[in-house]
Amino acid sequence: MTKLSHFDASGQAHMVDIANKDETKRTAIATGSITMSAEAFQLLEFNASRKGDVLGIARIAAIQGTKITANLIPLCHPLALTHVHVDFVKDEANYCLSIIVTTETVGKTGVEMEALSGVSAGLLTVYDMLKAIEKNMVISNIHLIQKKGGKSGEFNF
CA separation (Å) from 26 to 9, 46, 53, 128? Predict the structure, then answer.
């Protein structure tokens, strides 16, 4: 069985020691989606929300979410991100919006949690900006698509 790195020999949670790890370029891509009613999707599609530019604000929220990951997830190391990219994909047939967040750094630990945090913050912002129209939107399928760099190498979903 694989040993979980966030627990010491006595089973206590701790921050992993990365002092002796090599600095490498590390990249992660994560995604998730939010499904909504036709009415809410139409407001999103035509940028007609009373709160403003939903996707513009969600993009900034996703970027901010990547930057504060260590404040949200107790055992994450604070990272100096070198790049964050946010994309949106609209599925008009299913009234669904997907977000894709790519994070990069040159460092001793990966940026998977930062990408996942960015996805979550972006989707929650879409929900917040459209909740006056609809409260039963569904956020789903948040997951890592790819990671590169570090000792464990490449991962593809």
Answer: 28, 36, 31, 31
pLDDT tens digits, one per residue of 42-84: 999 887 777 789 999 999 999 999 999 999 999 999 999 999 9
pLDDT tens track for 89-103? 999 999 999 999 999
All residues at 6 or more sequence positions from 152 whose CB lies less than 8 Å from its CB, including other chains: none
CA pair distance 41, 74, nearest whole angstrom? 35
> What one-character DSSP code corresponds to residue 17?
-
The distance in angstroms from the start CA to the end CA of the chain is 22
Active site residues: 128
Residue whose token pair is 């609209």: 90
